[in-house]
Structures are given as C-alpha cells and as structure tokens.
User: Fold this.
Amino acid sequence: MTTVTCTATDTNANSASGTFTVTVADTTPPVLTINVTSPVEATGPNGAVVTYTVIATDAVSGPLMPTCLPASGTTFAVGSTTITCSATDAAGNTGTATATVVVEDKTAPTLSLPANITAVATGPSGAVVTYAVSAIDPDDAATVSCTPPSGSTFPLGLTTVSCIATDMHGNTANASFTVTVMDTTPPVITLPANITAEATGPSGAVV
Assistant:
C-alpha cells in the first residue's frame, strides 16, 4: 500500500491538502508448462519409467519450484496416467497444470518353435507327433496356439504347423515349422512251409 499526498495552493497562498492510498495486489497465479513425451513404450510388466520437465514462472515472483505427482522418473503403469503439477508464488497464488502420459504395449511376443520334425509312419493314417512350443513377452504373459495341435495324427508327407502367440494387449507373432511323416518300414512277407507236390503229368503239377 502506498499513500499519495496532494496539496493545492491558491493565489493568496491558501492551501489545502489530502491523502489517499494505492494498493497494488498480486492476484495472478504462476504459469506452469509440463514437457513430456507421450505415448511411451512399456519396457516391462510394470510399465515404463517416464521422465519430464516442468517450468513454473510468475510475473512477480519469477521462476518457482513446482511440485508434481507422479514425480519425474516414476514407473508409469500401462495405460493413461495424469501428471499434476502446482506452484505457489510469494502472494499465495497457486497455479496448476496437468498432462496425460500414455504407456502402451506394442511389442509382439517371441515364439520358440522346434526344428522341422521328421517322423516314421506307424500305420496307414501316418503318425502321432508331439512337440513343444512356447512364447515370451517382455511386458506381460502370452498364449500360444498351433494348428495342427501337438498330439495330432499327421498324414504321410509334409504338413506345415502354423503357430500364433498373443499377449494380453493383443500383440501377435506368427511362425511355422514342418512335420514330415515317412514310410520307411518294408513290407512283411509271410510264406508257407516248403511244399512237396506229386507231378500229375509231364508238365509237373498245379500247386
């Protein structure tokens, strides 16, 4: 508050004076700017570490130190997270700012398949073939399905097994291998015992 004093004097040296006050108030809150990158790719099942910077300035108080939640350098979960920052100037005015960070999982699983398989037929339908497949994902669990499935009867010849792995966020990976069923078993011949027959004519005998 400032007091202003005014005096008026006429030509006969008579004077009068008075005062009034001027109050300059700071009612403007600080301005905050959040600088952050979004979206961010998850680096593990817990999400991703997100770093950001915040600038808080005030017309009267100048640069200020803001406070933010979640703090920069925190692990943000997969999905949307809102950063809220605030700063208060010397006059008690508080300014706030928010920013939304999206952590997403765009990484496909990695399939682990067997090498191409060769099996020997055990019957006219081919052979039952079992195999093991798996998938790993850096961010979450993944399920694997293959066609034909393990334990199926594979026909003679070459069959392609197609596998797909899907993680919890819908990312997929595809791969395949082959199963070849071969017939390498020779026929089995069953013969009678040695036969002795009586000739029935000059040409021999019908046996």
